[in-house]
Amino acid sequence: MKNLAEVSNSEQLAFISSFDHVLSDLDDISFYYLGVIWLLYKPLPDVSACINSLRRNGKMVHFVSNNSTVPTDVLKERLSSCGIQAEDENIITPIKAILAYLKKIQFNKKLYVIGLNWIKTLLREEGFSILEGPLVVEESIPSLFSHLNDDENIGAVLVEFDININYIKLQQAVTYLKRKDCIFIVGAGDARLPFGIGHLIGPHYYINILSDFSGREPLKIAKPSIYYNDFIKERFNNMSNPSRVLFIGDSISEDMAFASKCGYQKLLVLTGLTKKENLSNWEHPEEHKPEYYVESLSVLNRIMETCPSSSI
């Protein structure tokens, strides 16, 4: 694993010339992000300059997120506020991939959804019938069981980040998942969501509860699942050669793992979840190691500026 800023100019040029498409990590939660593009939704230094430099040199740039807390138009606005222009189709999120999957299999039953209201609204707008669990029930066993009747019209349980997660929602989901014909779909399964000085509990834990009690393994449609990449390949059908695609990210367990599974080149950025000490104390599978890392996109931008455009 090499620091891209410390290799020879010829090696830098060879690296930059080795890819045509860039998939940049764009993970965040509603109020906080520390990663590749921004910090607390303020752009990290030279980020827009780096993105523009990549585009100017003929690279197609797309943004890939595991975000389940805000719609695409909000991400688009935040990118714009950072000086980065992106069309809706250039921003990839789990809910987009999940919608595409449901349409591909011609899903025509009801969806039981654990997730935020904007996701339920979007699913309804796309023509899907939604059932959601109650927030409050009477605190008695008879009342509990009155909410746990199976409904064979429920054909899938979809689990995403849910601020209003509760016991009855989980128990209701287990009831449906006991039927093998009920599809179990999940988006991002993060255990911890970084938030300011601490962390929020991620959906990983309640996904595990559902999996444990139902005996079902979910279909995960988010990084680092290969199913997420199926959607990306269908969305960008000109990305036919994965070895000519560079994935830029700050997370080893998600971004680098995802890139490895997909056969993409990897560039690790140290402005987010991964720090330099994590590189010397490597605790991940060897195949997740990128060939290069950079301290920030500002460094990558400087490298791009020193490479002659005619040679890229």
TrEMBL record:
Belongs to the HAD-like hydrolase superfamily. InterPro entries: HAD-like_sf, HAD-SF_hydro_IIA, HAD_sf. This is 4-nitrophenylphosphatase. One of its GO terms (molecular function) is phosphatase activity. Its cofactor is Mg(2+). NCBIfam families: HAD-SF-IIA. GO terms for cellular component: cytoplasm. Keywords: Hydrolase, Magnesium, Metal-binding. Pfam families: Hydrolase_6, Hydrolase_like. Substrate binds at S65, N66, N67, K223. It comes from the Eukaryota. SUPFAM superfamilies: HAD-like (SSF56784). Divalent metal ions. Mg(2+) is the most effective. Mg(2+) binds at D250.
